[in-house]
Amino acid sequence: MVLGIDASSSSLSNKNLSVLVVDDDPLIRMLHDNYLKHFGLKPHVVENGKEAVKLFQLGIYFNLILMDNEMPIMNGVEATKVLRDMGSTSMIVGVTSRGSPSEMQTFMEAGLDFCFEKPLTFDMIDFILKELNMNDDDDDDTNN
Amino acid sequence: MDLVQLQRQLVEYRTSLYHEGFLDEQFTQLQELQDENNPDFVVEVVSLFFEDSERLLNELTKALEQQSIDFKRVDAHVHQLKGSSSSIGAQRVQKVCIAFRNYCEEQNVEGCLKCLQQVRHEYSLVKTKLESMFQLEQQILSAGGSIPM
């Protein structure tokens, strides 16, 4: 049976999701910020892994964290490890510009849920949001 | 030139940029992000790209002029340039960056210098072309028309 409603792309269901973008490149931050706004989200944006960890320590929870790998002060791999060690249950999606299988693997092993190569596309974000909404729907009556 | 001609010119120009590999579909995605809430999005992102790139190209020139070249540093700059060029769809710049990084890994000075020249060239080409395209768009808007998709 098909519901006929694509909940993941509807801005309504996305409004409750909190998103953090972690990237040292201002152009990428602006781009990802706008991508997510297009899907009805209001992302918070920081420029390195240490800032992301600080937010967690302050008790601020994000449903989704988009994590770049190569950043100064604290890179994506380190930040992901630290966040997981501290007990973060956010969905963490790595966004890497290297794309070599071994680097993506290292990044995944740090505790990512998914890893994509830059640049992000609409399809990738759609996929991520669907996954997020599926996790949130755990207690609902779903048809699948 | 009348409005319809201007619009046709823009479409042809844009198409040629894709065909010649100056832009790829990432640029199309950028255009799709532009709407009434964000009417200058593409120009803003591209301007950021220009600023970023010019800074990086200067850093690269300095780094490669050193007596003893820090290839890690050079690689870090090229990496950033590759990232931003691929994010706006500047395909030809991105391609040179890929080759550039290989030379960095090999610590090949000549290769790096050649790539620097090439990337400067490709960057100035795509900059000129994007600026021309924006100018055409402005002309259309000033004439009271809308930008064809």
Automatic annotation (TrEMBL), chain B:
Q: Which domain of life is it from?
A: Eukaryota
CDD domains, from UniProt?
A: HPT
Listed InterPro entries: AHP1-5/YPD1, HPT_dom_sf, Sig_transdc_His_kin_Hpt_dom
The PTM Phosphohistidine maps to 79
Primary residence: cytoplasm
What keywords are assigned to this protein?
Cytokinin signaling pathway, Phosphoprotein, Two-component regulatory system
Question: Where does this one sit in the cell?
Answer: Cytoplasm, Cytosol; Nucleus
Q: Which PROSITE patterns match?
A: HPT
Stored SUPFAM superfamilies: Histidine-containing phosphotransfer domain, HPT domain (SSF47226)
- Residues annotated as domain HPt: 38-143
Known role: Functions as a two-component phosphorelay mediators between cytokinin sensor histidine kinases and response regulators (B-type ARRs). Plays an important role in propagating cytokinin signal transduction.
Q: What is known of its domains?
A: Histidine-containing phosphotransfer domain (HPt) contains an active histidine that mediates the phosphotransfer.
Name used for this protein in its record:
Histidine-containing phosphotransfer protein
Q: Which organism is it from?
A: Hibiscus sabdariffa (roselle)
